Amino acid sequence: MTALMDEKILLARFAQRLRKDVPLANLTTAKVGGAARYFLSAESPAQLAEDVSFLWANDFPFFILGSGSNILVSDAGIEGVVIHNKARLIHFDENGESHSICAESGAILITVARQAALSGLTGLEWATTIPGTVGGAVYGNAGAHGASMQQNLLLVDILHRTKGYLSLNNEQMDYSYRSSALKREPGVAVILSARLAVEKGDTERIKELLNEFSASRKQTQPPGPSMGSTFKNPAGDSAGRIIDSLGLKGTRIGGVQVSPIHANFFINVGGACARDYYNLIRLVQGIVEEKTGIKLELEIEMIGDWKEQA
Ligand code: EPU
């Protein structure tokens, strides 16, 4: 099929909703990367599911963009369709003593966690410092302060490419450190919403935890555009500690610098491009492997066309 025919099919289906050549840098927290060839906003889980079904049926490649906090978009951008997930409703449920939150996958995790805390519900305080959407956090088992999504997830509603609509429970998500059954099989399903467990808590204790986590984040993690932790922590150690121990804090390529505050954060100090990020990632990985034998694995996902860089 030619690109022109593809575009005709997309226009016939999405009409005014379809935008072309939409710059993505400002939709990511690192503020780098090229444009999406085609771009749609999905305002509800139903719309997200319909869009994805259509794209699967027509074999169009697509990427679902949440809050862009854990991705590095290539300078060449994304050739297929980017669906911006703006399905953000949050609903609190109470059933006798048991409490849960149902959040659409594009809901901002920090908002969900703060609303829970304000309602006197405990269990999600760890998530008040994590940028990203509920969908992204459920997919990647996001975590901080010794907790992660694995502790909260009750059910996730997904659309599966071959099996249709499904609800997966915590066990079926088969969580591991920063990974899940869905993450291990990328592209087979899209997350529509999730139900998270919380419980009635002591408001003073909740407030204390929020203050403690926010202070620890301010003290140990740098401000400025970045993707958060660049690498996963290798078993029993911290990627930040290892990079720091090799004297790499402050190392800079183009507009990207290994943060002098936390060595696993790579900061866009101004004028960076995705290639700078790529080059700094490879440089640090290379030095760490050479000096310690440890192969640091990316926590972030590289999206788009990276051929030029290979
Ligand atoms: N450390 C250094 N130098 C550094 C950075 C850290 O020596 O430049 C040392 C610290 O002093 C500490 C140890 O390494 O003894 C661990 O550091 P930290 O407590 O900052 O935690 P981390 O393992 O680097 C993890 C998560 C963060 C999360 C924090 C706090 C990963 C990859 N990172 O970081 O998650 O916020 O714990 O709970 O699991 C993220 O996933 O994007 C993220 C920011």
Q: Could you give the count of β-strands?
A: 17
Largest sheet: 6 strands, antiparallel
**What integer value in Å does the Rg equal?**
20 Å
- Distance from N terminus to C terminus (CA atoms, Å) equals 27 Å
Large-scale geometry: globular
List low-pLDDT spans: none
Topology of this structure?
Elements: H1 3-14, E1 19-23, E2 35-42, H2 45-57, E3 62-65, E4 71-73, E5 78-85, E6 90-95, E7 98-104, H3 109-118, E8 121-122, H4 134-140, E9 143-144, E10 147-148, E11 153-160, E12 164-169, H5 170-173, E13 189-200, H6 203-220, H7 239-245, E14 252-253, E15 256-258, E16 266-268, H8 274-292, E17 301-303
Parallel strand pairs: 2-5, 3-5, 4-17
Antiparallel strand pairs: 1-2, 6-7, 7-13, 8-13, 9-10, 11-12, 11-13, 14-15, 15-16
Bound molecules: uridine-diphosphate-2(N-acetylglucosaminyl) butyric acid.
Summed up:
By secondary structure, the chain is of the alpha+beta class.
Descriptive key words:
27% strand; binds uridine-diphosphate-2(N-acetylglucosaminyl) butyric acid; alpha+beta; single chain; six-stranded antiparallel beta sheet; 17 strands
How would you describe the overall organization of this protein?
The protein is an alpha+beta fold and 310 residues long. Helix content is 29%, strand content 27%. The chain is built from eight helices and 17 strands. The protein has helices spanning 3-14, 45-57, 109-118, 134-140, 170-173, 203-220, 239-245, 274-292, and strands spanning 19-23, 35-42, 62-65, 71-73, 78-85, 90-95, 98-104, 121-122, 143-144, 147-148, 153-160, 164-169, 189-200, 252-253, 256-258, 266-268, 301-303. The strands form five sheets. Strands 6, 7, 8, 11, 12 and 13 form a six-stranded antiparallel sheet that branches. A four-stranded mixed sheet has the order 1-2-5-3. β9 and β10 form a beta hairpin. The longest helix has 19 residues, at 274-292. The radius of gyration is 20 Å and the shape is globular. The two termini are 27 Å apart. 41% of the residues are buried. The mean pLDDT is 96. The protein binds uridine-diphosphate-2(N-acetylglucosaminyl) butyric acid. Uridine-diphosphate-2(N-acetylglucosaminyl) butyric acid (EPU) binds next to α7.
